[in-house]
Amino acid sequence: MTPTSYRFRGAAAALFIVPLGLAACSSHPASAPSATSSATSASSSATAAPATGGTAAPAACPTTPVNVVVSVDQWGDIASELAGKCGNVKTILASSSVDPHDYEPSPSDGAAFTGAQLVVVNGADYDPWASKLAATSAPNAPVVDAGKVTNTAEGGNPHLWYNPSAVTAVADAVTAALTKLEPKASDYFTTQRASFTTAMKPYDDLIAKIKAGASGKSYAATETVFDYQAQALGLVNKTPAGYMTASANETDPSPADIAAFTQALSNRQIDVLIYNTQTEGSIPQQLRDAATKAGVPVVDVTETVPPGKTSFEGWQDGQLTALAKALGVAV
User: Fold this and answer.
1) pTM higher than 0.90 for the full model?
2) Coiled coil located at which positions (predicted)?
3) Which tens digit of pLDDT belongs to each residue from 93-151?
4) What is the pLDDT of residue 13?
5) What whole-number distance in Å separates Cα of residue 154 and Cα of residue 152?
6) Residues 27/101, Cβ–Cβ less than 8 Å
7) Strand runs (DSSP E) across the chain, as ranges?
8) Top-tier CATH class for 35-199
């Protein structure tokens, strides 16, 4: 969703109380100074680290590395692991302080796309600027669009990296695209894909354990960012309907909606509150305070890869481990 009154912020930023407002994804102004220079990064390097479990990447790329441009870091980390040394991966938005929805690309972003041989975007109206740049600046480059890969309906939840099946599908699509571009590296990319599967095993195991131990338990969320993951875990969404409708329509919830939410928390009708720490505003803080007062566990999640996390799976594993603890599941 596009932002209303909240401000998207980095994980280390202070929480400022602002007037009421509700948004699934919020931002600093999209044209904030130095957003591009700080967010455009080659930190998703061409060299993949050994995957968890001891499966190391091949020693060298057998062909010329593929130039890959990725719109956002949620997919940038994955693309970098899949490409390994056979990819020069540049992620345009690698900053938790910039909202991809309304980002205004700079000329340097257009230049980055010009040299792309492969483009990876989220799609689903999450990063439309990236799809436009791909069409104008890299018209001959194949595009892996997560929304199209997963057949996400128009207006659907765009936070596809929180959908385990979407992560698998997009990883497969990226590997297929890389292999088609550089057939000589087919075995290399196959090995990289297997290494990624190994690295994701703790993530898969956490999902399986939480689903086995907490399926049917309830959650409510200040935003929809985690909903795909919650569904995969078998959790029941008890976010009040009026609040969810306001969120879907990108409008402020009514006082009655907020009261229903806080009452449900106070009555312990909700087992856990999912809280996006990359937003700021009086409403989510009010809900967090109500949960804390009622003794309802609060699990912090983020929309983008937070500072200090060096891999997609490390980011996700940490959040799932915190959720398991909140739900009383041993992992």
Assistant:
1) no
2) none
3) 987 667 788 789 999 999 999 999 999 999 999 999 999 999 999 999 999 999 999 99
4) 36
5) 7
6) yes
7) 66-72, 87-93, 118-121, 143-145, 218-221, 236-237, 272-276, 298-301
8) alpha beta
Cβ atoms of 9 and 208 closer than 8 Å? no
- pLDDT band for position 302 (50/70/90)? very high
Please state whether beta strands 118-121 and 87-93 pair in parallel, antiparallel, or not at all (unpaired): unpaired
Main-chain phi, psi angles of 270, to 5 degrees? -120, 130
pLDDT averaged over every residue in the chain: 85
Give the 3-state DSSP-derived string for 59-80, with helices as H, strands as E and coil as C.
Answer: CCCCCCCEEEEEEEHHHHHHHH
Query: What pLDDT sits at residue 48?
Result: 40
Architecture in CATH of 203-326: 3-Layer(aba) Sandwich (3.40)
Give the residue range(s) of CATH 3.40.50.1980 domains in the chain: 35-199, 203-326
Output the CA torsion sign for 211, 212, 218, 219.
Answer: negative
Number of CB atoms found within 10 A of residue 82's CB: 26
